[in-house]
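Q: Entry one of two.
A:
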Amino acid sequence: MKTNIEAKFKLIEILNISPVELSYIKDLTIPENIVSELLNGESGALKVHLENIQNDETLPVDTRLLAACLKNRMKDSVIRIKMDGLDEDEDDEVEEENYGYFDEDLTEEEKEAIKENEKERNKMWRDREIEFHKSIPILKKYTQEEMNSVMFNYIWEHFPLLQKGFDRKIYPKARDSFFGHIGIAYYRYQLPQKVQDKINIADDYVKNEIINRFKKLEIESIDKWAIQYKQSMDELGVKKYTKSSIKGFFDELGLKVSSIVIDTIKSKL
């Protein structure tokens, strides 16, 4: 992406971001032709680019969420939320929505349906943004130990499959679920840096804690597993014990044990 000041001005204007947030956009790799269009006052290609990133399942979840957040800021409806002193009893201050562009071939009924859909979508994003801003003071108050504990307890309770061994496919879903639970799923890149650092440290802690707890379970259970495996082979009339059949035994139990456990059990028989 071009780094000239005019392009940065345009991105700040179109995406409604702060100068600090410009650094996040580097992960989205905005092509030169789109930057050129921005300098000419055109933003349609940028919106399509963000939508493509959002829908690309091969990309990291954080990148897709960032694209969704930025694309939402580009919508035609003008939303202004009063963030100071958020009170349950206070009405959110929202400017009149502007739904001004329709295909001439649309019926009045279809136009009205589009308006209603936009209003619902805008309300959903307003609610998310309000929840996000309410979360920040709470997250700021957490000590690192409290943040570690809150994140671990949520993931451990709601994703019990991780208790059977760390799974690289399941963990990202568990982490994203936790981010939604604390109200930051769509706004990770807008967190104060200290809060972001605190969450990153908690993320590493949770992964290591899951791994270490299962290692402890492996040490405590290896003799029991060896007996269970041998019994299952005896029932099948199999006298040859292989690493492949040991792995199959653990697959049946839904346990993701280390190769060391498999090697140890084989050596015991």
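Q: Entry two of two.
A:
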Amino acid sequence: MDVSRVAVDRINKTGKKFYYSEAIPNYSHETNLDKIVCINLKRIIKKAI
């Protein structure tokens, strides 16, 4: 599986999904919770590699 394309459920209750690779460079318009999820996901992926 391509780690850069891990899909994650948004916490902001929209029910939409976003890709980690898209979320990190574009999260200025996201909620703070989404930012936290992105940062935590980045850490998890680094540990997994």
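A: Comment on entry two: Residues 3-48 form one domain. The chain has one domain: 3-48.
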